[in-house]
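Form 12-C: Joint structure prediction
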Amino acid sequence: MKIDPIHQFNIEPLFTLGHIGNQTIAFTNSSLYMLVAVAIISILMLASGTQLVPGRFQSVAEISYEFVASTIRSTAGAEGMKFFPLIFSLFMFICVSNLVGIIPYTFTVSSHLIVTAGLALLVFFTVLIYGVAKNGLKFFSIFVPHGVPGYVLPLVMFIEILSFFLRPVSHSIRLFANMLAGHIALKVFAGFVAMLGFSLGAIGWVGGVLPLALTVALYALEILVAFLQAYVFAILTCIYLNDAIHPGH
Amino acid sequence: MAESHGGAKGPATNAHTEADGGHHSGGFPPFESSTFASQLVSLAIFFVLLYVIVSKLALPRVGGAIEARQNRIEGDLAEAQTLKDQSDAALKAYESELASARTRAQAIGNESRDKANAQAEAERKTLEEQLAAKLAEAEKTIASTRTAAMSNVRGIAADAAGQIVQQLAGVVPDAASVNAAVDASLKG
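Section 2 - Result
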């Protein structure tokens, strides 16, 4: 019995969609779980009724709506509600795909850097394009903080510009690394249970209680992380958009 | 990550991992660049689809339901407020009406009492007048009766005196002198 915690991240092409240059574009297991996430969100938001007194299902939809809306209002102000569909889509997509991915034998979409990088770059370019379109060159005043003495200003500006362009990197790697590490840790500890049992017999099965308990605890933590990382991604998006909306701060 | 993990597990596991990795055209799946294009295309398709569903259908729908509820609650509260105002106004009107009715009732009571008093007074007065008139009449009657009786007494006394004189003296007295004598004795 070997532990292979990496196997769960394999991309398996299901069927080919076409070719771009010499690249084959396939519908993969990742695509399937993206579709599953979109389907779950659509069902939740569209099939949940619009009763005056909401049922459980409708309450979940309305709580999601209110949660994202209040997050935007508190971080980016009322003007940030322009980006409500974008942030709601990001939050729900990451949250649902993470929660689906935590079910054993499923695939986690955001455990691949290319996916989180795609989402982070989408946010980055939205901020950049909207910021310049709305504020013109004044947008770049976010690189010049107020009240900084002139002689350190070049250094501060250099750091500000660097951190601005590193935003998509940290934004994407945070989500990717959290999901990846969590799933590897879960797989390793779950694998210990089976490995101990198969290699040591009865003693091994008894000894396996410890890693099993740890797996259960980790599982609970991973459910929290799945939600929390979606929230962190959404709230960072709000904060970055706030720069584009109010560059004076 | 795969390499460091394999290293920790020892050479046997390392070989396994490498063999397994080799099956999937080498290395750690998230860094396999051959799958990037497929994943990006899928992400673009499904994220755009999700964005369209969310912005065109889902958010207007759920937001509409929340707003409708909010409006309903506000409307109900406003209606409750107007109803409360109405009932307050009605209560105030009722109280003022009651107060005015009370004063009016008092006024009517006073008026009718005064009227009754006046009427009773008037009746008493007329009754007293009638009684006084009757009394005066009765007194007059008594006086006239007495005068008549007195004049009869004079006549009777004159007759009696004339008779007595006739019996005693055998002389029929002069009527005038008898009368004068009677009058003198009556006066005396």
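Section 3 - Comments
Chain B touches chain A through 47 residues (CB under 8 Å). DSSP finds four helices and no strands in chain B.
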